[in-house]
Amino acid sequence: MTSRTTPAQHPGLAIAVLCAGGLSAALTQTMVIPIQTELPQFLSTSSSNASWVITITLLAAAVTMPVAGRIADMVGKQRVLTASAALLMIGSAVCALSDSLAPVLAGRALQGMAMGFIPVGISFIREFAPPEMASTGVATMSATLGVGGAIGLPLAAWIADSGDWHTLFWVAAGLSAVITLLTWFAVPHVHDGHPGRLDVPGTIGLTIGLSAFLVGVSKGSTWGWDSGRTWGAIVLGLVVLVAWGFFELRQDEPLVDLRTTASPAVLMTNLAAVAIGFGMMAQSIVVPQLLQMPEATGYGLGQSILGAGLWMAPAGLMMLVFAPVSSGLMRSIGAKKTLMIGAAVLGAGYLVALVLMDAPWQLLVASCVASAGVGIGYAAMPTLILDSVPGHEAASAVGVNGLMRSAGTTLAAAVMATLLTSSTTSLGGFAVPSESAFRWCFVVGAVAAFVGVAIAAFVPAVRRRADAIGVDLDETADATV
């Protein structure tokens, strides 16, 4: 039965559903990491081929976020949210039913495409939530990008240890099925679409350019940074992206409005997103490896995969805890200064790790400090974006910001892998990262975070746009009850 009612009738429930959906989508980014060494055996393939099970999800997520945002601005955000949750359910079910590489890659690609749920959800909250709830809702929803990845590791390790690896995907499928239903029935049906067309050539160009560039970066440590294949992919990606940019500037209805994206407030926020995304991912890569390094090295902490994940889990929860803190800071001192504080706290976390890396609890402290900074900074970025763009471009603009965060995390993965293999020591005839390699990783992470502070300082002050708030809910509501 459908009736016309105020979509903000239960805004708290709707926000909770969106945050749960964002968390579910983000979980899929790291859910296969605990079983990555066994994937070649599980899928009867080589280690090189199996590595694509992780890579393809990251690529699909990076490309999909701005595309999903554009579609949401055209047809309505609630519809795209429901479709994204359904994609997550289908992709998870495909993986759960598969035992070979090709269908698992297809399912993982669908899981990556579901990441469009997060930027669309962030932009949608402002449309139906009252002002006193909107800022906290946006902050919490934005934090799920980091939280899902952080808590996905221990959760997946526990599930993988307790049964068949397919169980990971059955759990994801069941969770996303619930999210799909809740998104359809509990999230307001608001007529917020703006007539337009999808820039298909632009979508293809962005997909080719981003995929080539990110594959080159992410595979650099595997293929070798002196490999022609690595630099060929990177250069090809950059050339295609430049050509794509010129093409987009000539379109009446571009996939991404580059003129809006180039405005100082949006541009500097997106550049800060790269630096802070780098900082977030660096600790997610380095700290678990240090925790699992054998004690025989003299600096390793000898934890199991599950143990390392459990030591990391509180850091993920810290991002959620500090989302409301970020909301309060934005109300009192503004989103720009809040972003600077978040990046500075993230950098401080890496400096703490430099002097506290001799015990698991010490790395827990450092990770919690860094994650608090991520929670604060991630919450401020979409607010800066939403305050700077027209309402009909809100989802697309937040999607581009999500893409820039993904670019930062991909760069971090490549740089950390290179640093960890650049200085090694021998253990039982095998080369493992040296203690100095881990310390350099923490230094580079801190530098990236403080670069984020410097970039954020150049974000101009922006008065909140009236049309960024959303549509007239009393006139355009259409909720399903």
Note down, in words, how this protein is organized.
The chain has 481 residues and is mainly alpha-helical. The protein has two domains: 7-198 and 255-469, MFS general substrate transporter like domains (Growth Hormone, Chain: A, Up-down Bundle); 199-254. It contains 20 helices and two strands. The protein has helices at residues 11-27, 39-43, 47-50, 52-75, 77-96, 101-113, 117-128, 131-162, 166-186, 200-218, 220-223, 228-249, 258-261, 264-292, 305-333, 335-355, 360-386, 394-422, 435-456, 473-476, and strands at 424-427, 430-433. It has a two-stranded antiparallel sheet with strand order 1-2. A hairpin with a 2-residue loop joins strand 1 (424-427) and strand 2. Helix 5 runs antiparallel to helix 9 (166-186) and helix 8 (131-162) runs antiparallel to helix 15. The longest helix is centred in the N-terminal third of the chain and has 32 residues, at 131-162. The chain is globular. The termini are close together. Mean pLDDT is 85; it is low at 1-7 and 466-481.
The count of helical stretches stands at: 20
The SSE order reads HHHHHHHHHHHHHHHHHHEEHH
Q: What is the class of the largest domain in the CATH system?
A: Mainly Alpha
Structural class: mainly alpha
Q: Uncertain regions: pLDDT < 50 for 5+ in a row?
A: 1-7, 466-481
CATH topology of the largest domain: Growth Hormone, Chain: A
Q: What is Rg?
A: 21 Å
Strand order of the largest sheet: 1-2
If classified by CATH, what would the architecture of the largest domain be? Up-down Bundle
Q: How would you describe the shape? A: globular
**Distance between termini?**
6 Å
**CATH homology superfamily of the largest domain:** MFS general substrate transporter like domains
Overall pLDDT metric: 85
Beta-strand proportion:
under 5%
Largest sheet: 2 strands, antiparallel
Strand count: 2
Number of domains: 2
> What is the helix fraction of residues, given as a range?
over 70%
